Amino acid sequence: MTNPAITKQEINFRLKSASEYGQASFAGIVSLALALVFLLNSYSAAEGAFRPTVLAFSIGYFVFAGLQLAVWALIRSNLIRKGEITTATRSLGYVLLLSLLTANIFIAAVAFQLIKRKKTAAYTLAVYTLMTTILVFAVSALNLFKPYVSDTFLIGMVLLLLSAAVQFIALLLVAKFANGTLLPSWMWLVALLLIVTAVSGNLFALFLGLLLIGKLRDKGYTTGSKLNDIVDRLSRSSTSMLGLLFILFLLTVSVTSYLTFDYGMAIDNNYSAIFQPPSLEYPLGTDNFGRDLFSRIVFGARISLVVGLLSTLIPVLIGGALGAISGYYGRQTDNIIMRALDILYSIPGILLAIAIIAAFGASTTNLIIALSVGAIPTYARTMRANVMLVSTLEYVQAARAFGSGDMKILFKHIVPNSLAPMIVKSTLTIGTAVISTSSLSFLGLGVEPHIPEWGNILKLGSAYLETHSYTAIYPGLAIIGLVLSFNFLGDGLRDALDPKLD
Amino acid sequence: MKNKGKFAAILLSLTIMISGCSLTTKKDVSESPQPTEGTKVVDSNPVDIEVLGMSANEADLNIIRDQLGKNGFNVKLNIQADYSSYKAQQDAGNFDVSLSSWTTVTGNPDYAVRSLFKTGGDYSILSDSEIDALIDQAASQTPEEFAATYKDFEQKLVFDKAYIVPLYSSLKAQALNKDVLNPASVRLSKSRSLPWEELDFNDVSKRNKDALVLQSTMPTLTSLDPIKGNDGSINIINTNQYVRLVNLTDDDHITSVGSLSRNHAIAEGNSDYYFILRDDINFAQIKDKLAVDTGERVGADDVIFSLDRAKNKNSVPDHRTFTLHEHIKSAEVVTDLAALDAVKVSGGDSTVKAALEKGLDSKISELVSDKTQANNASGKYQVVKLTTTTPFPQVLNYLAHQSAGIVSKKQVEKINTYDVAKFDPNKDIPYGDQNTVTEGSAYNNTLYTSGPYILSYKNDYDAIFYKNPAYMKGTEHEPKINNIKIRFIKDADSSLSALRSGEIHLYYGVSETKFDIVKGDAKLSLQTLPSNAVSYLLFNTKNRPVAESADLRKAVLYSLNQDDFITYYGGNKFKATSTLSPMVNTGLELKADAAKAKEFLNAYKASK
């Protein structure tokens, strides 16, 4: 069956055009690296022995990394020899799915992609929806090892299970029907149920629900909705999907933690459990006051996300509005607004934030305001440039010829078409906002010291970097993870939303 | 589809079954509130309380917040970044309780209570005549007698009136680089500051070549005039710049060793104190940034001058230490040798003269009033007699404090020519002003120091000291290292890093949480000793509910658990009942009691 005449370029083209190939190598290498990290961690030099749980994890990761790399080799030979991935190779994806048991989302995400030959946006969303819920369920289930759980734990877990069930059914249905242009009308029910499960913070479910509804309403008249396009493009980059997965995982955990986590574990001191190393009861160990680091990081996600999102949303709204007005009206209006913003722009952002907090005191609200104010000018500039570009387009002139008012033209025709760069920019800067929040807390200028905010946790941990390093490493990893995720998502969104690709 | 539903249902029921069996919820573990007998049911709303503290004590504040929160309070933390903003908040009365700490640097119990709790004391916001009476009564008693008085005092202060909540007493800890410094030469004393003259390198050939590097947090020195400051920025510095009449031993006993006096004696009646002076200390001064001998001896006239200005509130503007010396009535030079023979020592049969002569190489043949005439080898001595206003044996502890350091009468009178009442800080430059030793245009070092070292100059990063070339030359107290440098490092973690990297050689004040790191470093050695430092919560006495209601104060008192603090600090703190605890064992102990706390809190709510 080998074709000796096939050229090197052809081979390269075949490998590049199959997204499964690149994804498989990515997942394999990441898993291998993680397995090594776990292996190094499992050996405790003090006792001269391996810790069984971590070692088991490491072995699990090694096994699946090996499998994944084997599948990668198979895909490669399939592509070179046959130009496509065979059904047998694809069915290996089911085996790889088992890696979810070791919480290896990298391999699992790739496996879902491998199983399905023709991937639709709905299928991808359904996969990520289910994975998010399962991860959240697994993380929340770790609370079972605690001496006690919160009063609403059972309700929360049952609700999570129910949504997982709904999402699993939706996945199967989507896999079966979404290829066709026409969806059966009872899919309305599935879509609505999915949207209900999105209350947990799992926005994948919301997107999926909206996508399905869009399809149902469209009745096959058009080729697909804009959301469909974006998800399609975004899902081509596995890093940005993983980024989005981590963000939405944190969001879901933050929301469900109201039911499944006990806030007391995170803020009440427990003097009999000071500096417990990571164990099942305390998955990430305890800090110098005997508080569970795991619970603290979970509750910290809430603050980091809220502060990060709000301190990006506020300047997007204010800066966007100012930039739009400035760009549309031009002349004096433009001059006055932009020069005023230039003055604001000339003040270093973090110094401004420190000054605001020093003047008004340290609290979450002040923190958000402090971080927002400094970011307004950059958004205004971005928006202004877009508006100036869009307002010269024909359809705007057409609207003007029809006698539409300025406000209507600006906010109905121009702003919606200038939003894409703003979305990309804001996604990329949420990461900065998260870092700024943590930096200010680290300096003692953020929220109160006992509140589990990531910067606060890191600050406490940094004092014990040598003796109990895990108190600093885990919050640090959480911050890195969230910021990286936003950056990856931003990159993916830029590609997906780029008007030049339209 | 049917199968999936079934699967989900099975999974669901399985999970509920498994978890339902063994799951304990928070409600199960939290104790049901015990109704206390005799108290009527009152509202269960938490009581607001504002706790003031410094960010350096964030850990303590967190424990306090946690413990009060668990006992029915709603805690609002007011955390200030540094001492001055903390003090400003405290002076403005913006607190219900303030986290305070006190170190009895003189090592005597009177100091631990007088300025803190007596009406009108330096740091006191209390005004309670019973407390005042007990403080005065104990002051006039000997150690055997005052234990009982101080027990009554503690009972009143802590348990009956609940003016303070004691938290813990601390260790004094310092870490040193044992590769560089000789650990045996580094003393750690309960109260006394580190004597620099004893410090030595392992390699004695380095004494003249290398600088010994110490550390301090505060580059702004309050004043180099010993009576004008009593705080962390200058206590160690002034202790080593000015010699005193007596010293404290490492365990807080009075000694003449290493002091200006060769011997001292307490006369019958505990009101007269005699000191026989050395003749081998000259004042040092700085010329061209190097220390030189002024040729002027430290003598009785300087002692009398120094003690007079120490007790006199109006001798200098901003006198910070006169309350320590308010028991001094007068100091005079004794020239009549027969007078020494006429008085007996307190609690003994020997005469004062015999007591002063004890251990001297040559007996007293003559007492001189002119310090230049003194020659100890030939038996010519100077003796100073100090009289207290009331019998007060603890006066010796105050004389060992840095504020009783001996300054040069000639030099201080030469510099301090201003009129104290009309002192203008913009124009007049007092003796010891830190600007005169800070590098820059205002540099004009006029210090005359009687101690083992003298400050040459300083900037924001370090201060350079040289040894006094004429300080007890040829004795074991002669300073060994020629040059000492203090590095100003504000942050504790940075200081520890500096020690570990060899940038500094000795770090005083290692935090308990860093002990493990120091012990784990092969070139470092850790010295610890229980100190006279006590942390406590002070209640506001004005315009706050805690000022009016003893019940509310007692609710706070019994809410706080000292054991938790000790656990948090890894057993490196000790229980305390008041600021007296490190010095006087009264046998009283504060035990946390949640039931009592609840009872008092309910009583407070009922009385509202």
From TrEMBL, chain A:
Matching SUPFAM superfamilies: MetI-like (SSF161098)
Keywords on record: Cell membrane, Membrane, Transmembrane, Transmembrane helix, Transport
Localization (cell): Cell membrane
Membrane topology designation: Multi-pass membrane protein
Domain ABC transmembrane type-1: residue ranges: 301-490
Gene Ontology CC entries for this record: plasma membrane
Chief localization: membrane
Protein family membership: Belongs to the binding-protein-dependent transport system permease family.
Protein name per UniProt: ABC transmembrane type-1 domain-containing protein
Automatic annotation (TrEMBL), chain B:
Pfam families: SBP_bac_5
UniProt GO MF annotations: peptide transmembrane transporter activity
Gene3D superfamilies reported in the protein's UniProt record: Dipeptide-binding Protein, Domain 1, Dipeptide-binding Protein, Domain 3, Periplasmic binding protein-like II
Keywords (A to Z) from UniProt: Signal, Transport
Solute-binding protein family domain ranges (all copies): 266-602
PROSITE patterns: PROKAR_LIPOPROTEIN (PS51257)
GO terms for biological process, alphabetical: peptide transport
Similarity remark: Belongs to the bacterial solute-binding protein 5 family.
Official protein name in the record: Peptide ABC transporter substrate-binding protein
